[in-house]
Amino acid sequence: MTQFLSRKSGSIALLVIVFVACGVPAYAAQRTSGLWWMPDVASKGGEQIDQLTYFIYYLTGAVFVLTQVVYIYFLIKYRAKRGVRATYSHGDNRLELVWTAIPTAIFIGLWGYSNHMWWDVIHKEPPPGTMEVAVNAYQFGFSFQYPGASGKLGRSDVKLLSPENVFGNDRTDPLTKEDFQSGVLELPVNRGVRILLTSRDVIHGFYIPQFRIYQDAVPGRTIDWVWFVPTKVGSYDLACSQLCGSGHYNMKAQIQVVSEEEFDNWYKQKLAAAGNASAANAPAQSK
Ligand SMILES: [Cu+2]
After folding, report:
1. Closest CA to 229 of 130, 142, 141
2. Of 264, 266, 128, 267, nearest to 194 (Cα)?
3. Residues 214-252: pLDDT tens digits?
């Protein structure tokens, strides 16, 4: 029996060591700071989401500690003793009522709090001057489409989506001609950005931990209610958070949050390059 137990605990210990040895470096590879906690917030409203997370974390932590203390205390106090017969309880309706009512009230309170916050952060109208960017997820990457000089993305419909037209642009809308694509999500700091999220194949996750943003991309749908305001200049990873196939582990894109000025330069360059490309293509197409 003891031999069996020691062998079992030996293999559990081995499993834990393998998990820690493989898991921790894999986790650390993506992050350079705050390895054991959430990454720094880099978007407006992110603090509110963190407050809710902390609140739930400390509340459930306190309940966990409290119940474990009571549990261990009772284990010791009522342990087997020579000459003492065990007594047991058939339950107590009043106590049952109390410990059902308290968690129910807490859950309803949490629902109210989180719902209120969610409306405040996500479901509010985006600020004026918010830019629209189309985001298309595929196995295994993301591509982005920016509006042209008019500042408005051309019409698109997810039904028009095809390998040649991954954003489902409606070519009858002249605005689609000035849209341009990018492999990097370049964003100006402190300006709102609303994304039009589509998927070419399967469900993917649009996930930016520093922005506290997460939204699934679902094939056959355009998800247009997600917007955010980046507040810190820097480079971030947009990572897919839905297991979407063999290349999922490497499905990501770069997000560059830059100053307004730097963004304008980038935007003008991209716009000019796109204009030149379409001008170069025009004669060939007319033949
Ligand atoms: Cu994916």
Report:
1. 130
2. 128
3. 999 999 999 988 999 999 999 999 989 999 999 999 898
For the 131-277 domain, the top CATH level (class) is mainly beta
Task: For the chain, give every domain's residue range.
Answer: 38-79+91-124, 131-277
The residue to which tokens 């991209």 are assigned: 270
The pLDDT, as a whole number, for residue 150 is 81
Residue 244 Cα to ligand 1 midpoint, Å, equals 5
C-alpha 206 to ligand 1 mean position (Å)? 8
Integer Cα distance of 50 and 47 in angstroms = 5
Q: Are strands 131-138 and 193-199 parallel, antiparallel or unpaired?
A: parallel
User: Ligand 1: distance of its center to the CA of 217 in Å?
Assistant: 9
Global pTM value: 0.74
On the 0-12 / 13-18 / 19+ scale of CB atoms within 10 A, 130 is middle
- Which is nearest to 210 in space by CA: 183, 234, 186? 234
Arithmetic mean of pLDDT, 57-61: 94
CA of 112 from ligand 1 middle (Å) equals: 32
How far apart are the C-alpha atoms of 57 and 253, rounded to whole Å?
Answer: 30
Residue 278 Cα to ligand 1 middle (Å): 31
Contact between 43 and 52 under an 8 Å Cβ cutoff? The reply is no
Residue 188, burial from CB neighbour count under 10 angstroms (0-12, 13-18, 19+): buried
Range in 105-114, 150-159, 197-206 the model is least confident about: 150-159
